[in-house]
Specification:
60% of the residues lie in helices and 3% in strands. The chain is mainly alpha-helical. A two-stranded antiparallel ribbon has the order 1-4. A two-stranded parallel ribbon has the order 2-3. The radius of gyration is 22 Å and the shape is globular.
Length: 388
């Protein structure tokens, strides 16, 4: 029976999206699909902040959920009206589904959860709540715990903080593109949606090498996108530098899986399952976080338009949840944490090995073949021209 359940879960597949049902980007399509999603989400946040009665929030909930779903299914960000689709821009549709899935979860939390409150007691606005992806200024629950990476930029000077942020932005933007081009040149099959495994269809030293490089690219992309948001927030909107603490804390130095994910996801929300016994709540909380993360990547991968397989996209995160539980069991049995050089080797090998299938699926759906920058203006190419 367990084997049947395993096959039923691991074989979950979403078919490719029909491009004929999706509209290219235009002023009209954005007004018809994107704007209603944002407006309905704004009202959902407004209802939550006003402590509107539960029945009213529940009655409103189907509207943002439908608007977000409609936006995800009808917009095609790879096409501009009057032009043809560009498969190298498929990551834009992936980002759209990731964003809308995140906002779907936010809508559910704002509907059924407590009134979002700021830690300093000040009032919040719907827009502030909508765009507070990390939620550092909010309690969300009186017993939630948040780890924030230590700041390495000078927060006493807005100008120097902006300069440091801009330097980080340029460095990570260039790093991501240099390694991305290297992967594309050394694994040309990925440009046609081929596998990183080769004929064996199982992880190899070379596929693991590509997997590690792909991880560095994703890390660098997230970092420079966050740097862009930080720069805009501090320079354009005049927000305090302390409102934009670092998003990562050197996860490559982690000596355990729990430390790795803690350093990788600094400042993200945690909501313990207090209604469960402590031991069960711990298991539910760990596996629940990784299950949601797996679902996000599964749906995001589907947004690329070429279908999506559940296990390659979500399995990596579920396996890491199991790895954390194994570390907890080790601590219980052995009386000591996983740490030191043994812990570092365990963490790096575990993450790199199981990420093989995730990166292989990214190759199949066209993510590795993507161009994150306009042709002729890729940072790596511009750096090469400057060094000649």
């Amino acid at each position: 029976m367990l084997q049947a359940v395993w096959h039923a879960v691991s074989d979950v597949h979403l078919p490719p999206l029909n491009p004929d049902t999706r509209r290219p980007v235009s002023a009209q399509s954005m007004l018809d699909a994107y704007l209603p999603a944002l407006l309905s989400l704004y009202i959902t946040a407004w209802l939550a902040l006003r402590s509107t009665p539960l029945f009213a929030r529940v009655a409103w909930l189907p509207i943002p959920l439908f608007a977000l779903y409609r936006c995800s299914m009808t917009l095609d960000l790879t096409r501009v009206e009057g032009g043809s689709a560009n498969d190298r821009r498929g990551y834009l549709n992936q980002g759209l589904l990731l964003q809308n899935t995140f906002y779907t979860l936010c809508s559910l939390a704002w509907t059924f959860g407590p009134t979002p409150a700021k830690r300093d007691g000040s009032k919040s606005s719907p827009l502030e709540l909508m765009f507070s992806f990390r939620g550092l200024d909010y309690t969300f629950s009186s017993y939630s715990k948040t780890h924030v990476a230590p700041e390495w930029r000078p927060t006493s000077s807005r100008s120097f903080f902006a300069i440091y942020t801009l330097a980080s932005l340029l460095f990570h933007m260039t790093l991501s593109d240099v390694i991305h081009i290297y992967i594309q040149n050394n694994a040309p099959d990925t440009l046609q949606g081929g596998s990183i495994f080769g004929p064996a269809r199982t992880p190899t030293i070379f596929s693991t090498y590509l997997t590690v490089l792909a991880g560095v690219v994703i890390y660098a992309v997230i970092q420079f996108v966050y740097d862009v948001a930080t720069f805009i927030g501090v320079v354009v909107f005049r927000q305090e530098p302390k409102a934009w603490p670092p998003i990562f804390q050197q996860p490559w130095l982690a000596t355990s899986l729990s430390q790795f994910w803690g350093l990788l996801l600094c400042g993200y929300r945690r909501h313990p399952a207090r209604f469960l016994p402590a031991s069960i709540a711990n298991i539910a909380a760990v596996m629940g976080v990784f299950f949601v993360s797996g679902c996000l990547h599964f749906i995001g991968g589907w947004g690329m338009g070429k279908g999506a397989d559940w296990w390659p996209l979500a399995g990596f995160f579920l396996v890491n949840g199991v790895g954390l539980l194994l570390e907890n069991a080790w601590k219980t049995v052995m009386g000591s944490r996983v740490e030191g050089i043994f812990g570092w080797v365990w963490t790096m090998v575990f993450v790199a090995f199981w990420a093989n299938w995730l990166v292989d699926e990214w190759s199949r759906i066209g993510l590795i073949a993507s161009n994150f920058f306009p042709e002729g203006k890729r940072p790596a190419e511009m750096l090469g021209m400057a060094l000649r």
